[in-house]
């Protein structure tokens, strides 16, 4: 089976392979995280591993967009919260924009998850977006990752958004080290695990909700 849709360069990644992709990513950029439980320095990986320029800027007035990955040089409209106006600016490819106010209004782990999410887009989806540069090349090709809109696995961009949503927390909480940490804290069915979940969220610097989902994925809850 091919790894990519040959005509559109969209990677074929079934949900059961999300852990595999996260492991491949960490093996390439931060293999230490696969050896023992630790906080994954995702911003350092983004900047020094993938060579992304991470910038913290306003993206939308409504704070509806966590982050964006820019795949080609060009112009892009962003929001200036001080002037309360949208402005068009030139950006280079390999730029990631994070809206600090948008991530702040959600939860403590949102910033890291957004960074990991954008890393997945660059790692797996850059060829698709670069190919789009043949139309309207003056404008940057990018993807926007919204706060509330959950994608449906139907059209091209939604398929890739689903992949980033699924793989990003697995990068921050790689399966075997995460299971080791959870078992060390005694997390199991039939007991009150709230304090342990908070401990894991703080340790991995992610949200409590992400930990709870990851525990279910790893069949620990």
Structure notes:
Helix content is 43%, strand content 15%. It contains eight helices and six strands. The protein has helices spanning 18-29, 42-49, 100-104, 110-131, 156-172, 175-184, 194-204, 208-217; strands at residues 53-56, 65-70, 74-80, 85-91, 95-98, 142-146. With 221 residues, the chain is an alpha+beta fold. A four-stranded mixed beta sheet has the order 1-5-2-6. Strands 3-4 form a two-stranded antiparallel sheet. α4 (110-131) runs antiparallel to α5 (156-172).
* Overall SS class: alpha+beta
How far apart, in Å, are the first and last alpha carbons? 33 Å
Radius of gyration: 18 Å
Binned, the helix content reads 40-55%
Q: Main sheet, how many strands, which sense, barrel?
A: 4 strands, mixed
The stretches of 5 or more residues where confidence is low (pLDDT under 50) are none
